[in-house]
Every structure is written in structure tokens, then in C-alpha cells.
Specification:
There is one protein chain. The protein is an alpha/beta fold. The protein has two domains: 5-166, 3-Layer(aba) Sandwich (Rossmann fold), CATH 3.40.50.720; 212-287, N-(1-d-carboxylethyl)-l-norvaline Dehydrogenase, domain 2 (Orthogonal Bundle), CATH 1.10.1040.10. 53% of the residues lie in helices and 12% in strands. It is built from 13 helices and eight strands. Helix 3 (52-58) crosses helix 4, helix 8 (163-191) packs across helix 9 and helix 11 packs antiparallel against helix 12 (258-269). The chain is elongated, with a radius of gyration of 23 Å. It binds NADP nicotinamide-adenine-dinucleotide phosphate. NADP nicotinamide-adenine-dinucleotide phosphate binds next to helix 1 and helix 4. NADP nicotinamide-adenine-dinucleotide phosphate binds at residues 9-14, 32-34, 37, 65-68, 71, 74-75, 91-93, 118, 120-122.
């Protein structure tokens, strides 16, 4: 017996979720603000409803993939009592507090809440390449695990509904920082007459060699123990200043590098020049 599953939100992610469920033979109900996005799924066997409340009432398991937490909050609160007895699995990106707020709201309406952070593009949903981290109701994760596993590898991170988002926003901050570094490197390479395509394999090779240092930095940060004989803040301050000067001389503004230089400078000025580069995080925490 296949469970009836609802998908709320038929953007790129929601359509991929619904398609995967239909492919596995699940009776699937869908709703989208702009109804035309349901047409292709209806042609594949989905049922489309006029309101989100009708769609939520139709499914025991309700997957939500809306643009942002504001949209998710609006759609769910308007659906109101339809969530009673339903398991809401919210895959909408947001911060930990957004997830906690909706978990509390769902509990007040007798619904179960699980938050999911998706590590996939729509094309990989339903394959082993996709992974989704969940937090919130452990009972719901346990009950629906086989259905959730259809979407991608599923990992349960704990009963705090905000935990998956806590990981997610931190991971994505790291990703965007890396992309910022890559874009800067590409602009500098081109200014030196090197194509981005020629640069990238060498950059990837160096990053791959360097990434294990992040685990060392992580231990230093958690233990607040920054003594080092390898790579001091003063040395990195000097190295980064050289790179910034070279970038500016090439006509590439150091927009993505200056914030890191500022953190390093503050730690050196505070007398921590001999400490590990990881100590720069303390200026970031102090600024927060
Ligand atoms: N796509 C990815 O690769 C990916 C990966 C990981 C996580 N995510 C997350 O998954 C969520 C959905 O992503 P997506 O790629 O599917 O986005 P998308 O293609 O832009 O779709 C956004 C969806 O939200 C709906 N929506 C926006 N504002 C709304 C409102 N006020 N009321 C009702 N519905 C509203 C849109 O409805 P209309 O069609 O009517 O505009 C559409 O269904 C996002 O939070 C995203 O960060 C996406």
C-alpha cells in the first residue's frame, strides 16, 4: 500500500519531489500558488487542489517546498486546522528560529513537524546523489523514513527542529565564502592572462590538499586553544596583504578578501599575532 503524500509548492524542488513520488507509485496531491505548474504533474497522475488546506488535508505526509520561511509561514497559517494529524516535512530553506517557530505552531495545531535541509539540485532528487538532513519529530522521521529515503539519503540530526537549519545555514555560509574566494581567484587569474578554466584544476588541487586543515582549525576553535608552530596570524596577515596588493595592482578590487584581513588585523592588534589563523574567528564572534 502506498501512502498518500502531498507536496505544497511546485517550484523547481517541489516538482522534483512530486515527480519522484509519482514515479514510485504514491498517490500524490499537489498545490501551488500559480496553478499552471501543477498541469504536467496532473498529467502524470497527481491530484491538484485549489487551496493549500485541501492539499494538506488529503495527505498523511505533507512535503513543503516554498521559496522562503515567510511564504511557508503564510501558506501554513492560512491552512490552519488542516494540519491536524498530519506530518509536515518542511524543506524550505530558513534559519533555526524559523523552523522552531513552525514546529511550535504545528504542535499547537496537533500536527507533527520535521524540518529538512536539502543537499541536492532538483535533478538529483530521488537519486543517491541527494541527501537531506532532518530534525524535529523523531517519531515522524522513524514512521516516514522509507518515504523520505525515496527523495535522497536521509539523516536525522536530533529533536530540536532548528538543528538541521543550524547546520544548513552554517554550511551554506561556508559554501558562499568559498564561491567568493573562487570568483576572486578567477578575476585575478584573468587579469594575469590565465583563463579561469586553466586556473581551476590547480586551485582545486591546492584546496583539496588544504581542506584537512579545517578539521584542525575546528578543534582549535571548539577548545579555544590557538597555539601553533605552523602558520601564525602575523604570517597570514603579511601573506594576505601581499595578495590584496597584487589584486589591486591588477585592477581587481579586494572586495572578498578585505573582511578576512580585518578580522586578522584585529586579532594581531589585540596581541595574538603568534596564534593560529583560526583565532580570527574570535573577532567574528566578538563582533556578533
Ligand atoms: N532548487 C534547489 O536546488 C534547492 C536545493 C536546496 C534547497 N532548496 C530550497 O527549497 C525551497 C524551494 O526552492 P525552489 O528551487 O523550488 O524555488 P522556486 O523554484 O523559486 O519555487 C518557489 C516556490 O515558492 C512559491 N512561493 C513563493 N512565494 C510564495 C508565497 N508568498 N505564497 C505561496 N507560494 C509562494 C512559488 O510559487 P509560484 O510558482 O506561484 O511562484 C514556488 O512554488 C527554497 O527554500 C530553496 O532554498 C532548493
Amino acid at each position: 500500500m502506498h501512502t498518500t503524500i502531498t507536496v505544497i509548492g511546485l517550484g523547481n524542488l517541489g516538482r522534483a519531489l512530486a515527480h519522484t513520488l509519482l514515479r514510485d507509485g504514491h498517490p500524490t496531491t499537489v498545490w501551488n500558488r500559480s496553478p499552471h505548474k501543477a498541469e504536467a504533474l496532473v498529467a502524470q497522475g497527481a491530484t491538484s487542489t485549489t487551496t493549500a488546506a485541501e492539499a494538506i488535508a488529503a495527505g498523511d505526509l505533507v512535503l513543503i517546498a516554498l521559496l522562503d520561511p515567510t511564504a511557508a509561514r503564510k501558506v501554513l497559517t492560512e491552512a490552519g486546522d488542516a494540519v491536524r494529524g498530519r506530518t509536515l516535512v518542511n524543506l524550505t530553506s530558513g534559519g533555526p528560529d524559523d523552523a522552531r517557530e513552525l514546529a511550535t505552531w504545528a504542535a499547537e495545531h496537533d500536527g507533527e513537524y520535521l524540518h529538512g535541509a536539502v543537499y541536492a539540485v532538483p535533478q538529483t532528487i530521488g537519486t543517491a546523489e541527494a541527501s537531506i538532513n532532518y530534525s524535529g519529530s523523531e517519531a515522524a522521521h522513524h514512521r516516514w523514513q522509507s518515504q523520505l529515503d525515496l527523495l535522497g539519503r536521509s539523516t536525522f540530526l536530533g529533536t530540536d527542529a532548528g538543528r538541521a537549519s543550524g547546520y544548513d545555514v552554517a554550511i551554506l555560509a561556508g559554501m558562499y565564502g568559498t564561491i567568493g574566494g573562487f570568483l576572486h581567484a578567477a578575476a585575478m587569474a584573468q587579469a594575469a592572462g590565465i583563463s579561469a578554466a586553466d586556473l581551476t584544476p590547480k586551485l582545486l588541487s591546492w584546496l583539496t590538499d588544504m581542506f584537512p586543515a579545517l578539521s584542525t582549525f575546528a578543534r582549535e576553535i571548539d577548545d579555544k586553544e590557538y597555539s601553533t608552530e605552523e602558520s601564525s596570524l602575523v604570517m597570514n596577515q603579511s601573506g594576505l596583504a601581499t595578495i590584496i596588493a597584487a589584486s589591486q595592482a591588477q585592477g581587481v578590487p579586494a572586495t572578498t578578501l578585505l573582511p578576512l584581513k580585518d578580522l586578522i588585523d584585529r586579532e594581531v592588534t589585540a596581541g595574538h599575532g603568534a596564534a593560529s589563523l583560526a583565532r580570527a574567528v574570535e573577532s567574528l564572534k566578538a563582533a556578533g
